[in-house]
Design a protein that fits this description.
This protein is an alpha/beta fold. The chain is built from ten helices and eleven strands. A six-stranded mixed β-sheet has the order 5-6-8-9-10-7. A five-stranded mixed β-sheet has the order 1-4-3-2-11, with helices on both faces.
Length: 251
């Protein structure tokens, strides 16, 4: 299976029609589309450290969630791009379409938190489900912190015990009303922001902000399984490594 064939197969499972209009994902870098894929690096972000790891380990392709190129590029002088081009390493990114598919970012987050009886929070984004055990808002925040390996979490508490949980990986400030409409007692998201925190407090919804990276990183396992599965169906043995591209740490 070559790079272009891998992208075609992943495109079939994560269709570009689900991407938001403002998004820029898909094939980011394609030095050689005919190159056979034996090793792939799976990462949330294509950071310099991720690029170095891919080149050092001989990966033919990097598969990421966040796009390598989001804003228009005026020139190609960035050492990151140049190092990947020299190594013939392709990059493909699956952004908002991976948020929207039913096995994507939010399903992975719900699974990591052990939610059961899950269903979509909205038509395409988020998920809502039931925790295994009823907990207080504070205890559930600690559970989320531990489950996601977050350094810290921010809790906007309410008096509600946690019996139903809405999740939205990444930025969830626009989903306060949807969480309430779905009967959720808490919204777990990466970041909500000051004004959404106030709205949640007024409306009596607990919000747990566990970090943009931490709430989306679980989907890397999904991407790994998709890449390995695509190879198996074509008779190729693709070794896929998940790379932790987290840069910021909280203290």
């Amino acid at each position: 299976m070559n790079v272009r064939e891998l992208y075609t197969e992943l495109n079939r499972q994560i269709p570009p029609s689900l991407s938001c209009e403002w998004d820029n994902d898909g094939l980011m870098l394609l030095p050689n589309g005919e190159r056979e894929v034996h090793r792939a690096l799976i990462t949330l972000d294509v950071t310099p450290a991720a690029a170095r790891r891919a080149v050092e380990t001989g990966c033919e392709v990097i598969v990421s969630h966040h796009p390598l190129i989001f804003k228009p590029v005026r020139n190609v002088i960035d050492p990151l791009y140049i190092s990947l081009i020299k190594a013939d390493t392709a990059v493909m990114s699956f952004h908002t379409r991976l948020d929207a598919v039913d096995f994507g970012v939010n399903a992975a987050l719900a699974a990591r938190l052990g939610l059961i009886e899950t269903q979509p929070l909205t038509d395409e984004m988020g998920a809502v489900g039931t925790p295994h055990t009823e907990l207080s808002a504070t205890d559930y925040a600690l559970y989320v912190k531990h489950s996601l390996g977050a350094d810290t979490v921010t809790l906007i508490p309410s008096d509600r015990p946690v019996r139903r949980v809405a999740v939205l990986g990444g930025a969830g400030k626009d989903f306060i009303s949807a969480a309430l409409a779905a009967g959720a007692d808490v919204l777990v998201t990466g970041e909500a922001g000051h004004h959404a925190r106030i709205d949640a407090d007024v409306l009596g919804l607990t919000v747990i902000e566990a970090g943009h990276y931490e709430t989306e990183f679980p989907v890397c396992r999904v991407l790994r399984d998709l890449v390995v599965g695509a190879g198996e169906r074509s008779g190729a043995d693709i070794q896929a490594e998940i790379f932790d591209s987290r840069m910021a740490r909280s203290f």
